Amino acid sequence: MQTSPQTGGGLIDGYVLVVSSHAGTRDGLTALLWEYGIPAYAAPGIDAPEKIAAARGAPALLLLHLDRMGAISIVELENFRMRHDVPLLCIAPADAHQPHVQALLQMAGDFIMTPYEPTELMLRIRRVCTPARRPGAAREAVQPTPAQAPPTFSDTERIILQRLSETIGEPVELDELAALLPSDTPEARRRLLRVHIFRLRRKIEPVPKNPTYLRTVRDYGYYLAQELEWLK
Fold first, then answer.
1. Burial of 156 (0-12, 13-18, 19+ CB in 10 A)
2. Is residue 15 a part of any domain in this protein?
3. Which among 145, 144, 220 has a CA at the least distance from the CA of 178?
4. 108 plus 10 within the same structural domain
5. In this structure, are residues 194 and 104 in contact, taking their beta carbons and an 8 Å threshold?
6. What are phi and psi for residue 62, nearest 5 degrees?
């Protein structure tokens, strides 16, 4: 029997959206999460997540079973994730060599291989959800400041930030930024760029869902609203 979000175990703040085209997988994962006190709802395809988000607000996490994706679109899934600023946790098959699986693992905040222990899955869910919803973030939003300890950037993240810092306050086109990234196609580079933007916001923004420094210009690109001390 499902418990209410208020009586859950408090592992995360919010609910998990389980994405799979296989009904048995969706129902099994959803039931497992409720059993551990985590509110969870099932989404059979890319239309369902938007409907659930409209009714319940954005989820705390997307839990995607890669072995049961069916016709679910990687592009639409990534668009949903970036639109709602939601982290992704993947359940991957042991032979995770298919191109679409590898692409999603690059986007994911973490992944777990099958077979897995339920307690390990719960641990990873909590780990992925915690950085984006740390206590006190809403209070910091009034006077946002970068974190006291300088974040550690990957080489790719630093390249993106350095390009944006050349034109503070001026947007840089999506395709220009994407061209800085190694990938086979323009669409793959754009997807990869969105992944890096998502990760950068989790590192530098007091409230990643309401970015202060790394801003979006819809249908155009991104810009830095002010210079970051870490790049000097």
1. middle
2. yes
3. 220
4. yes
5. no
6. -100, 125
pTM above 0.90, yes or no: no
**Tens digit of each residue's pLDDT, the chain (232 residues):** 343 333 334 578 889 999 887 888 889 999 999 988 899 999 876 667 888 888 888 899 999 988 766 556 677 777 788 788 888 898 988 776 676 677 777 777 788 888 889 999 999 998 888 754 333 333 333 333 444 467 888 888 899 999 999 999 889 998 999 999 887 788 888 888 888 888 888 888 888 777 888 988 877 889 998 888 776 6
Nearest to 86 by CA among 147, 40, 129: 129
User: Looking at the structure, do residues 173 and 118 belong to the same domain, yes or no?
Assistant: no
Instruction: Evaluate whether 210 touches 87 at the Cβ level (below 8 Å).
Output: no
| Sequence-separated (6 or more) residues with CB below 8 Å from residue 37 | 3, 7, 8, 9, 10, 11
CATH number at residue 59: 3.40.50.2300
Domain count, the chain: 2
CA pair distance 208, 201, nearest whole angstrom: 5
| Whether 229 contacts 146, CB under 8 Å | yes
Q: What angle do CA 180, 210, 196 make, to 5 degrees?
A: 20
Residues 70, 52, 46: CA angle, nearest 5 degrees: 25
Residue 125 sits in the same domain as residue 45: yes
C-alpha separations of 226 from 12, 151, 169, 220 in Å: 32, 17, 7, 19
